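Quick one, T. Sequence first:
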Amino acid sequence: MVEDLRRVAGRLSVLPGVRPSQAVALDVRVADLGNIVEADARSLAASVSRQFAQTAAPLLRATGVEVSPRGSVALTLGGDVETLRAMATAVGLAAERINLYVDRRSFRPEVVVASLDQQRPGSRVAAALEAIEPPVTEDWSIHELVLVRTRWGAAGGAAEVFERVPIGTGSGAAGVDGE
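Structure tokens:
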């Protein structure tokens, strides 16, 4: 699937103002947590780890190409999107229990494949994007939730992986309950 993403990004790179991302993995953002201290990150990881141990890994597929509200070009996702949405809600609830703010609007069932420069009025980039067919792929599953925190310094923000939480490692595969 990552190769499919690279092919789509390559096709997009011929459009003015479109910068393809260097995909090395399929990243689906479920929540924006921002700058989180280590103790809170550990607590959040432990909470979602317990919740997702019994969760069946959602099966997803690309269904379209769109310009997202964040100013990026993304593949929209189909398949077990409701399970993914429930996981995003569960992460938000777990974060709120330890008094972390989560922007619940940040979840979008998509994989970003390129960024988009500000477009001039009359730009044909959006129309060209609508004409691009998403890659035809087999369903793929999400097997882990990666907690990424932002470290701020003089040079700006740097994202770092703090914890990898496996999905569906327990016995059985129940749904996500948000507890």
